[in-house]
UniProtKB/TrEMBL annotation:
EC top class named in words: hydrolase
Keyword Isomerase appears in the UniProt entry: no
InterPro entries: Aldolase_TIM, Mutator_MutT, MutT-like, Nudix_hydrolase, NUDIX_hydrolase-like_dom_sf, NUDIX_hydrolase_CS, NUDIX_hydrolase_dom, ThiamineP_synth_sf
PANTHER family noted in UniProt: 8-OXO-DGTP DIPHOSPHATASE, NUDIX HYDROLASE FAMILY PROTEIN
GO MF, any single term: 8-oxo-7,8-dihydroguanosine triphosphate pyrophosphatase activity
Catalytic activity, as annotated: 8-oxo-dGTP + H2O = 8-oxo-dGMP + diphosphate + H(+); 8-oxo-GTP + H2O = 8-oxo-GMP + diphosphate + H(+)
Annotated EC: 3.6.1.55
GO process annotations (BP): DNA repair; DNA replication; thiamine biosynthetic process
Protein's UniProt name: 8-oxo-dGTP diphosphatase
Length: 321
């Protein structure tokens, strides 16, 4: 019987979004392969305690800001000088630490930009995680109906200055020519920043207007037979069936809603955090939570296994200190 090994894994993140990878040292299975730092959870340890101990032993640092994220199970075959085993990986974001980071086990260390991976080979269990890290934790959605175009463009510029990296233009009420003019302005503004823009429409219209990607509503998702090429593709989902469809099609991410009651539909009952986490359990596709989201909900969403939160109103409001 293949043994189950519980592992605590640290995703060390710099303020600029870079994360740390380490190569497995010689003498260990899969030597030379790259992975996130971490190690086996010993008897009597919690995953967080193991994370701190491993960071001290491997990197000479003590994590001080730790955010639980997701669990991933992976079956490793007997290969690369390692026995067959099943690992249950407990991933944590680590955004602050004490001490000077150094390689304590003769391993190589490399900071990587989420969309510019330049080390290989990477351990197979880490591939879906790296895909998720290509996406930022906040997904903004336009709201011209309530804000008006001038206010929206002004708020967009502010958010871009503060690091916004993913935007959905969701304005189906606009005439085709008006949407085209708005799109030209938005894409011109975003071109000066590291922000990818998606259009909530058909893949054809998104390509025609020059967007980086397309966001599909649930009807378009269910009608889809293969992932559109040359676009970042997200989809709106409301249940397990739609999430599964997005995963089977290998879309880049999904948006699950409503998590909480919303201002536009206060009478609608949200999924709630417990059900939200249940629906995400076992999915490999990155998922954003939408519906009643505020900035302070990000930690809860991450703890449920989401990549982050999507916001249509709160994201355009000035953050409170």
């Amino acid at each position: 019987m293949t043994k189950l090994v519980q592992v605590a894994v640290a995703i060390l993140v710099r303020p600029n979004g870079e994360y740390l990878l380490a190569s497995r040292p010689q003498g260990k299975g899969w030597a030379g392969w790259w992975e996130f730092p971490g190690g086996k959870i010993e008897a009597g340890e919690t995953p967080e305690h193991a994370l701190i101990r491993e960071a001290q032993e491997e990197l000479g640092i003590t994590p001080t800001q730790i955010q639980p994220w997701i669990k991933r199970r992976y079956d490793y075959p007997a290969t690369h000088d390692a026995e067959a085993k099943t690992v249950l990986l407990h991933f944590f974001f680590v955004s602050a630490w004490q001490g000077d980071l150094s390689a304590r086990e003769s391993q190589q260390l490399a900071w990587q930009h989420p969309r510019l991976l330049n080390v290989n080979p990477v351990l197979p269990a880490n591939a879906p995680i790296m895909h998720a890290l290509n996406l930022p934790p906040v997904y903004a959605i336009s709201n011209l109906a309530e804000m008006g175009q001038d206010n929206f463009l002004h708020a967009l510029a502010k958010q871009l200055d503060q690091g916004l990296q993913l935007l959905q233009i969701r304005e189906s009420q606009l005439a085709t020519d008006v949407l085209a003019a708005l799109s030209e302005q938005v894409l011109k503004i975003c071109a000066n920043y590291d922000c990818r823009c998606l259009l909530n429409s058909s893949p054809e219209q998104a390509l025609q207007l020059g967007y980086h990607g397309v966001h599909l509503n649930s009807q378009r998702l269910l009608a889809l037979t293969q992932k559109p090429e040359h676009l970042l593709v997200g989809a709106s989902c409301h249940d397990a069936e739609q999430l599964q469809k997005a995963q089977v099609l290998q879309l880049d991410f999904a948006l699950l809603s409503p998590v909480l009651p919303t201002q536009s539909h206060p009478e609608a009952v949200g999924l709630g955090w417990e059900r939200f986490a249940e629906l995400l359990n076992g999915l490999e596709i990155p998922v954003y939570g939408l519906g009643g989201m505020q900035h302070e909900h990000l930690a809860q969403a991450l703890a449920c296994g989401a990549r982050g939160i999507a916001m249509q109103r709160a994201v355009w409001q000035q953050k409170k200190d």
